[in-house]
Design brief:
The complex is a heterodimer of chains A (108) and B (114). Chain A is an all-beta fold. Helices cover 0% and strands 57% of the residues of chain A. The chains are: A mainly beta (108), B mainly beta (114).
């Protein structure tokens, strides 16, 4: 079993749609959690940290369920510019474990 | 530009040759990470430094791979006796120790072993 698992997609959605990505992790000692975004042939960039209480940044909402070892990312009112691969990242004692990513394409 | 930089951006080498990559982190960042990424996969952790100390190495990192960060600033990653399976994007990232994982990535070095 992979340490961080994500639905690879692809998710193809129209502009304005709401889309949700899920991620599960296997190591209960995981300490911190993140979503990164990676555009085609570019480096990953931090999208947002994920806190136990859940957190929101504009159209993006991240949630963490430690009991279920589950992380989610919700994107509301999708824009064409949201098209990218979204990487779930789990920090286990400073060893960053990345999921394989979920690919999103937003279409006009 | 005060971001993370990597050099070279692309490297083509023949199997069996040695290659060395360089990473210059964001100047005030004390942590530096190396990752490898292949198509369709997320970055795979290789090793990380806090200042000049190499604190962790992935068990996947064979003895052909070595990394240094001699003065706690830039870092080099060397691959000896390259194999075709080493073909990948090698990414460097830096962070502040207290941020718990908010890393800033460089553009990567794409290695092709022929």
């Amino acid at each position: 079993r992979k340490e961080v698992e994500q639905d690879p997609g692809p998710f193809n959605v129209p502009e304005g749609a709401t889309v949700a990505f899920n991620c599960t992790y296997s190591n209960s000692a995981s300490q911190s959690f993140f979503w990164y975004r990676q555009d085609c042939r570019k480096e990953p960039k931090l999208l947002m940290s994920v806190y136990s209480s859940g957190n929101e940044d504009g159209r993006f909402t991240a949630q963490l369920n430690r009991a279920s070892q589950y992380i989610s990312l919700l994107i509301r009112d999708s824009k064409l510019s949201d098209s990218a691969t979204y990487l779930c990242v789990v920090n286990v004692f400073n060893d960053m474990r990345f999921g394989a990513g979920t690919r999103l394409t937003v279409k006009p | 530009d005060t971001g993370v930089s990597q050099d070279p951006r692309h490297k083509i080498t023949k199997r069996g040759q040695n290659v060395t990559f360089r990473c210059d982190p964001i100047s005030e960042h004390n942590r530096l990470y190396w990752y490898r990424q292949t198509l369709g996969q997320g970055p795979e952790f290789l090793t990380y430094f806090q200042n000049e100390a190499q604190l962790e190495k992935s068990r996947l990192l064979s003895d052909r791979f070595s990394a240094e960060r001699p003065k706690g600033s830039f870092s080099t990653l060397e691959i000896q006796r390259t194999e075709q399976g080493d073909s990948a994007m090698y990414l460097c990232a830096s962070s502040l120790a207290w941020t718990g994982g908010e890393q800033y990535f460089g553009p990567g070095t794409r290695l092709t072993v022929t």
